[in-house]
Design brief:
The complex is a heterotrimer. By secondary structure, chain A is an all-alpha fold. Chain A contains eleven helices and two strands. Chain A has one domain: Orthogonal Bundle (ABC transporter involved in vitamin B12 uptake, BtuC), CATH 1.10.3470. Helices cover 71% and strands 3% of the residues of chain A. In chain B, a hairpin with a 2-residue loop joins strand 2 and strand 3. The chains are: A mainly alpha, B mainly alpha, C alpha/beta.
Chain lengths: 298, 346, 304
């Protein structure tokens, strides 16, 4: 193993972990909604696309950054609440998989609407952070990756704090725990749902901007949802911690696999490798890393 | 038998098979005589292939309750397997290539169905995405599958069975129609059998099914294998009879979703549902494009069409799930019943 | 006959139904204690030995011993949360006990193999309905014969002899059971569309059609009206009398149980606090404290 280039290995690993943070960020959007309403919101990717596209179209029309951010956030909140009212509420008490299919339909609607309104061309998005390599003791790390990771980590911390320390956050956790009990003690579910959808909209916006700056704001942004799914499978659909750890794990193994074993497969394995990792893991532990194990009741 | 009665409502005066027989007569005699080449190429050929794919997925998702998001992968396996069997095994009749392609798809389906033994719901749905990405990657990556063709796009062989060539749109239509008819009949026999009942038992209550002695694991794997077989053959029809080329790109995630939508819109756990759903999926973009250019003129270009298609399709899915979870089939049966009572009253 | 009753005298006199009494009389008529124990072992259909079960620290069952004789109606009662359903889930292999074992006939199991349950001669119903909602009533009952199916799916599609025979036989038996339980008039309806009480009865039919040696009934009368309860009790008794089936009955409603069962075990907080004939149970102070008192309070505050 004397030939092994440890510096390069660390570089790949750190790169993987940093992109893993971005996966975590997308995955958290799912977890928020899953925990409160039991829906795997496939439209999260479409929301991300919609947010990024709206933001970039606004700035291209001369709207200043902060204002564009605020407007987009407001739009995302409205969309989130509208989804909750018009799609999910009529489907209350339907099997979870029905709700999932509804969000699949929803993702088509949102993707179509986003591109119908703002066009299908690729927009560049410049957040003012240059993507320069950054030398840390011989290991080169992308400056943008670090920025994105810091923003994502800040986002996660802020959300955790919000749900831990505010009244509505406590309500969220009560609903996540037991919807009926929460209802019985007088928590106003519509408020909590609205908040959660707003939070998911914010996550979509931030993730959309970070990913958009990375790969350009275009249709394929919505496919990032496909990157988040193995993360969720690995971490458990209902665990924020799981989304974080799962994202890091997937990010790291994916990059390492691509660099070290990808050549044996002829490259391009990042499309499915994460799924195989998540599946292999699931076969050992069906409820994911941190998901709740449910006792079968018959 | 509920599956039977629910699926083929017996009209008051005619035996149950009369409607099917009449439909087949129209499809085999009237349509080839009066149909235009546009009807075959743009509507009937994709309709038949997608109906069959929807039928296959409906066995897995509608009857056995296992959601799959990777149907297009099994179509791709079928198409590429048929191409390679036909290319590499000399003097193998086309029909044998197609059957072997079905078995190849069934084998792959079995492998990707293994997670269903431990996973349920979302976890399983996500794991079927692995099939989608892996198969598409493998077919693109290894040029052996496409006979080292530079573009990755290959011409499908001509269709012939026992020396009879099925050429031109009508010939390919009759070929597809025959394959679809045979497989649909077999699928119908399956869903009314003990095995079909086991599928529904596993779907409705897995624990109860296990306790009464339904071999749950075997049943799930069987559902995956049979479903993949049918979807694989559908892939052959899609590539050989409709597109006349075989390429991985056509079997992407969007196709998988399309097939799932066919099943939802048409009606879960219904043989007819797949045909209703496929008809809607094939016809509605054509109608939309005519309607759009008629109403909006030049603004309605292909980009706008594509986007409005997505919006309408997504909205349809949501509306069906909310308003008519049993799909077009249920809608159709209700309308027919109402017309029936209306006629009796007058 | 006299001898048999004497032999079991020490265990509480058990009113066996005529056919079972004949069956027992034919088996063993010795009167000494050893013979009785011998007969007990041979006639035991099912027994639980020191079963303990907990879910992540929450104890559901502690050291439960229960034996069930062939042909008897054996009730297990207790207040909500006493562990009754956990017990039936242990017997049917849905849960694996932390300690102890279940003996079915001659076989001993740490965890009962659920997928073999039907072949071991055990059928059960569920506390919360577990019918196949998408199947007709008849098909639900026919599905109860699933464990006997030997034909392959190809044979079934082709309609080969064996598949055809199996299907005809299953339909025939299902038809008879439906008539026996007065369900013939709804046999074509989708199971999910029936009223609750009838669905419970369809579950009983699905279990009975398997011709089990042992029938586990998990709160078969829960949520029923008084009339429906009496009807159901009649069906349970008739099923035992007609088919000689051993019945293990979990119930919340102590009134129905008293009239129906041969022996009753009482659970409270996961422990067995009493075991005996209905008369003994009725007189047991611990049962009165733990269960009867609670039950009468419950009646006042129904719906809480």
């Amino acid at each position: 193993m004397s030939d092994f280039d440890w510096l390069f290995f660390i570089e790949v690993l750190v790169g993987g972990l940093l992109s893993g943070v971005m996966y975590s960020l997308v995955a958290i959007g799912f977890v928020l909604i899953y925990k409160t309403s039991g829906v795997l919101n496939f439209a999260q990717g479409a929301m991300l696309l919609f947010a990024a596209l709206t933001f970039v179209s606004l700035t291209e029309r001369g709207v200043p950054f902060a204002l564009a951010f605020a407007i987009t956030f407001a739009i995302m909140v409205v969309i989130g609440i509208a989804i909750e009212r018009t799609v999910l509420r009529p489907l209350t008490n339907k099997p979870p998989i029905t709700l999932f299919m509804a969000t699949l339909g929803l993702s088509y609607v949102i993707e179509g609407a986003a591109q119908l309104i703002w066009g299908t061309q690729v927009h560049g998005l410049d957040l003012g952070i240059e993507d320069l390599p950054f030398d840390v003791g011989g290991v080169f790390i992308s400056q943008f990756d670090i920025f994105a990771a810091v923003v994502a980590a800040g986002m996660v911390a802020a959300l955790s704090a919000f749900f831990r320390y505010t009244r509505i956050g406590l309500g969220f956790r009560a609903v996540a725990d037991d919807q009926f009990a929460a209802l019985a003690i007088g928590l106003r579910l519509p408020w909590i749902w609205a908040t959660v959808w707003a939070a998911a909209g914010l996550v979509a916006l931030v993730a959309g901007l970070l990913w958009g700056a990375r790969v350009g704001v275009q249709f394929s942004l919505s496919l990032i949802v496909l990157k988040a799914l193995p993360v969720l499978v690995l971490g458990g659909f209902d665990s924020i911690l799981g989304a974080i750890v799962g994202g890091l794990l997937i990010g790291a193994t994916e990059k390492l696999a691509e660099v070290y074993i990808g050549e044996y497969f002829g490259g391009g394995i990042e499309g499915w490798f994460a799924y195989v990792v998540a599946l292999a893991f699931l076969l050992v532990r069906p409820s994911g890393l941190f998901g709740q194990k449910l006792v079968e009741r018959v | 038998m509920s599956v039977l009665t629910a699926d083929l409502p017996v009209s008051r005066s005619l035996p149950g098979w009369a409607g099917t027989a009449a439909l087949l007569a129209v499809a085999y005699v009237a349509v080839p005589i009066f149909g235009t080449s546009y009807l075959f190429e743009a509507i009937l050929l994709p309709f038949l292939a997608l109906s069959l794919a929807g039928l296959g997925l409906n066995i897995l998702t509608g009857y056995a309750g296992q959601v799959s998001l990777g149907s297009a992968a099994f179509m791709a396996v079928g198409a590429f397997a048929a191409f390679n069997f036909n290319l590499r095994v000399e003097s193998l009749p086309l029909i044998a290539s197609i059957a072997l392609a079905g078995f190849a798809a069934a084998a792959i389906g079995l492998v990707f169905g293994l997670p269903s033994l431990r996973l349920k719901g979302f976890y399983l749905a996500v794991s079927t995405l692995a099939a989608q990405f892996f198969v598409q990657w493998a077919l693109t990556k290894f040029s052996w599958f496409s006979n080292d063709s530079a573009s990755g796009v290959i011409d499908a062989p001509p269709l012939s069975i026992a020396g009879v060539a099925f050429e031109g749109p009508v010939g390919r239509y009759l070929f597809s129609l025959t394959v679809v008819t045979v497989l649909t009949f077999l699928a119908y026999r399956l869903v009314i059998s003990q095995t079909g009942r086991n599928f529904i038992a596993v779907r409705d209550n897995e624990t109860a099914a296990r306790i009464i002695g339904v071999p749950v694991l075997k049943t799930k794997l069987l559902a995956f294998a049979i479903s993949s077989f049918i979807i694989g053959v559908a892939g052959v029809l899609w590539a050989f009879a409709y597109l006349r080329t075989v390429e991985p790109a056509g079997f992407n995630l969007d196709r998988s979703f399309q097939i799932l939508f066919i099943v939802i819109i048409g009606g879960l756990a219904s043989i007819r549902g797949a045909f209703f759903g496929a008809a809607l999926i094939v016809v509605f973009p054509l109608v939309l494009s005519r309607l759009g250019s008629f109403l909006l003129g030049d603004i309605f270009d292909s980009g706008v069409l594509d986007m409005s298609q997505r919006i309408v399709l997504g909205t349809l899915i949501i509306l069906f799930l909310i308003l008519e979870p049993d799909g077009l089939v249920a809608l159709w049966d209700r309308v027919r019943k109402r017309i029936g009572t209306g006629l009796r009253r007058s | 006959m006299q001898a048999m009753n004497y032999a079991f005298g020490g265990l509480g006199s058990v009113p066996f139904p005529p056919d079972v009494q004949e069956h027992l009389a034919g088996l063993d008529a010795r009167t000494d204690d050893g013979g009785a124990r011998h007969a007990e072992a041979r006639d035991s259909a099912l027994s639980l030995s020191s079963i303990s079960l907990s879910f992540g620290g929450v104890v559901a069952l502690t050291d439960i011993d229960i034996s069930v004789r062939k042909g008897e109606i054996r009730a297990i009662i207790g207040p909500n949360g006493a562990g009754k359903s956990s017990l039936i889930n242990v017997i049917s292999g849905v849960y694996r006990p932390d300690r102890g074992h279940v003996r079915i006939g001659k076989n001993r199991y740490q965890q009962v193999p659920t997928q073999k349950l039907a072949r071991l001669g055990i059928a059960r119903t569920f506390q919360n309905l577990a019918l196949f909602k998408g199947l007709s009533v008849l098909d639900n009952v026919v599905a109860g014969r699933a464990y006997t199916v030997r034909s392959t799916f190809l044979g079934q599609i082709a309609g080969l002899g064996r598949a055809r025979r199996e299907e005809a036989d299953a339909r025939d038996r299902a038809g008879r059971i439906l008539d026996f339980l007065h369900l013939g008039h709804v046999s074509g309806r989708l199971a999910g569309t029936l009223p609750y009480g009838l669905q419970k009865r369809v579950e009983l039919a699905r279990a009975l059609v398997a011709e089990p040696d042992i029938l586990l009934l998990d709160e078969p009368m829960a949520g029923m009206t008084a009339t429906e309860k009496n009807e159901m009790a009649g069906f349970v008794r008739a099923a035992r009398d007609q088919y000689g089936t051993t019945v293990v009955l979990i119930e919340h409603d102590i009134g129905v149980v008293m009239g129906l069962s041969d022996r009753i075990a009482v659970l409270d907080y996961g422990r067995k606090i009493a075991d005996g004939t209905p008369e003994e149970i009725r007189a047991d102070q611990r049962v009165i404290d733990a269960y009867l008192g609670v039950a009468s309070e419950n009646e006042d505050g129904e719906g809480i």
